[in-house]
Amino acid sequence: MLRDLAREAAGRRAILAAIILGTVVSYFLADPALAFASAAAFAVAETMDFAVYEPLRTRGLLVAMLASNAVGLVADSLIFLRMAFGSFDFLQGQILGKAWMTLGAVAVLAFVRRRKLTAAEALPPA
Questions:
Q1: How far apart are CA 42 and CA 22, in angstroms?
Q2: How far apart are CA 9 and CA 91, in angstroms?
Q3: Which listed residue, 9, 92, 95, 107, has the most CB atoms within 10 A of its CB?
Q4: Computed from CA positions of residues 60, 61, 64, 67, in that sequence, does the dihedral angle turn out positive or negative?
Q5: With 0-12 CB in 10 A as exposed, 13-18 as middle and 19+ as buried, what is 100?
Q6: 79 vs 3: CA distance, rounded Å
Q7: 12 neighbors 54 (Cβ within 8 angstroms)
Q8: Are 73 and 98 in contact (CB under 8 A)?
């Protein structure tokens, strides 16, 4: 979600650089097995999120965010759980928790956007 907003502000190249940097940082933050699983999941999921977001952006910010985050959160959960633990025992909880966070963020963004539009409409014409 934040990646999508950053894309809007900074552009594609900056986001791709941030994905690479995030992957490297992720690798160094945990023990080697978890770090590798985390870095791999982050790199793949963020790249998939980016690949889905870009073509859908023309259909609207919220549509692009929902679709790209759905793909990214599933990919991240699948890759991390398999590589880190060799199991999908916690897949449902991982996906559900991430989905709730995504929906909450989209609701906040929609509220803020609606509020900005309402405030802009209330301004007198220039």
A1: 8
A2: 32
A3: 95
A4: negative
A5: exposed
A6: 19
A7: yes
A8: yes
Please say if the pLDDT value at position 11 is more than 80: no
The CA–CA distances, whole Å, from 10 to 40, 49, 104 equal 24, 16, 23
Tokens of 87: 């199991």
Overall size of the chain counted in residues: 126
Report CA torsion sign: 72, 75, 78, 80.
negative
Residue 99 or residue 15, greater confidence: 99
Residues 91 and 81: beta-carbon distance below 8 Å: yes
pTM for the full model?
0.68
* Measured distance CA(68)–CA(3) in Å, rounded: 10
pLDDT in tens, 49-100: 889 988 998 998 888 888 998 999 999 999 999 999 999 999 999 999 988 8
State how far the Cα of 121 lies from the Cα of 20, in Å rounded to an integer: 41
